[in-house]
Amino acid sequence: MGDEASYDLSRRVEGLRSSAIREILRVVNRPDVISFAGGLPAPELFPTELLGRLSLELLQSREAPQALQYGETEGVPALRQRILQRVPFVPGSFGLEGALVTQGSQQGLDLVTKLFVDPGDEVLVETPAYVGALQAFRFFGARVTFLPCDAEGVLPGALAEALRRRPKLVYLTPTFQNPSGLCYGEARRAEVAEVLRGSTTLLLEDDPYREIWFDAAPPAPIAGRVDPARAVYMGSFSKTAVPGLRIGFLLGPPALVRRLVLAKQATDLHTNTLGQHLLLRLLSEPAFEEHVAGLRRIYRARRDALHGALERQLAGRLTWQRPGGGMFLWARLSGGGDAARLLERALAQGLAFVPGGEFHAEGQGRDTLRLNFSFSGEEKLEEGVRRLERALEGFAG
Ligand SMILES: Cc1ncc(COP(=O)(O)O)c(C=O)c1O
C-alpha cells in the first residue's frame, strides 16, 4: 500500500523529496560516527546558564504576561529596534516598518518565495547554493538557475546576462556561504551591487554567518548598496544565540514587508513571544558579546584543526580553500569522482559528511563535499580526517 495512492495531494507537493542531508543525519546519531555532516552549532557552547537565569528573571518580571501572550505579527517592537541597532547598515537605512521577526531565517525564505514565485518563475542562485533555500524555491515551483562563481563569488557578467531575462529573485549568500564557506571581497560586492542596480529583480541576501568570522570582519552586505526598494536582507540568531529559539529577521522595503506580514499571519500569526522576549534580554547582556567572541575563537581553532589535518594528510587527494568564517569547509576530489560513493565508504569507517551534489543543479558537483567543523572538537576533527583518509584509500571515484 503506497502512501502516495492514499491522498489527493496538491500539485505543489508532487515530487517533494526529503533532502539527502536529513537522511544522512538519521544515521549519524550512532555514537561511533563522527559527523562532519550537519550544520549544527556546538551544543556545549550554548549560553545555557545565561539563558536559564534570564528565563527566570523574565518570568518573574512585570513583562511576564506580555511574554506569554499573543503578539504582533511583525515581532516584539523592542526586539525589532534592537535588531536594527545590531545590523551592519548605516543607521536609518532600514526603518522599523521594514523589520520583521521571523521563525528562523528559513521562514524568511519561505515567505519571500511565497510572495514572488509562481510555478515556472525563474530564481537565480549561486553555484553551489544552500539546500534549505533550494527546497523553498522548488516547493513553489521555481525554475532555479545556478550561476557560475569563482573564488570571489558570483561572476558579475553571468549575473548581468541572467538578469536580462527578468527573473523574480536573485538569492545570494555572500558571507561565509553554506556550503562553500566563500566570502565575497569588497571589490566583488561592489561589482555585483553595480550589476543589480541596473535591474528590477529583487535581491534576497541571506546572512546568518556574518558574526562568525575568524580572521577579519566581513565587508558590508550587498543589500545596503542597491536600490532599497529591490532588496531584502535576512539574518538569524541561530548561529550566535541558539537555533532552538527559532528567531531570525528580515529587513526590506515597508511596502513589501506589509505583504510578508500578511503571509506570515496566515502561517503562524507571529514568532513565539516568549523566545523573542528572552532573546531581547540576552542581546542586552554584556556577556552576550563575550559569548560571540568565544564562539569565534573556538570555531577558529576548529577550522584550523580541520584545515591543518587535511593539509598534512589529504593535500594530494582533495583541494579546498580555507574558510575565513562560518561553519563549513568545502572540498573537491582532486582526481574527480563521486562523493556520494565516497560517503558510503566513509560511513563504513565511522565518518559522515554531505556530498556536494545536493547543493547543485541535478547531476552537477558530484566531486565536491561539505565538511562541517563547528560541531566536533579538535580531536574529533583530526580523527575524522584519518577516517576520511582510510575511506579514500583505493577509492577509484
Ligand atoms: C545560509 C542559510 N540560510 C538560512 C539558514 C536557516 O537558519 P535559521 O532558520 O535557523 O535561521 C541556514 C541554516 O543553516 C543557512 O545556512
Please describe what this structure looks like.
The chain has about 400 residues and is an alpha/beta fold. The chain has 2 domains: about 5-45 and about 290-390, Aspartate Aminotransferase, domain 1, CATH 3.90.1150; about 65-285, Aspartate Aminotransferase, domain 2, CATH 3.40.640. The protein is about 40% helix and about 15% strand. The strands form 4 sheets. The chain has a 7-stranded mixed beta sheet, with helices on both faces. Helix 7 (about 130-140) links the parallel strand 3 (about 120-125) and strand 4. The chain starts with a helix and ends in a 5-residue tail after the last helix. The structure holds pyridoxal-5'-phosphate. Pyridoxal-5'-phosphate binds near residues 104 and 248. Pyridoxal-5'-phosphate (PLP) binds near residues 39, 130, 206 and 243.
Relevant terms:
397 residues; alpha/beta; Aspartate Aminotransferase, domain 1; Aspartate Aminotransferase, domain 2; 2 domains; 7-stranded mixed sheet; 4-stranded antiparallel sheet; 14 helices; 14% strand
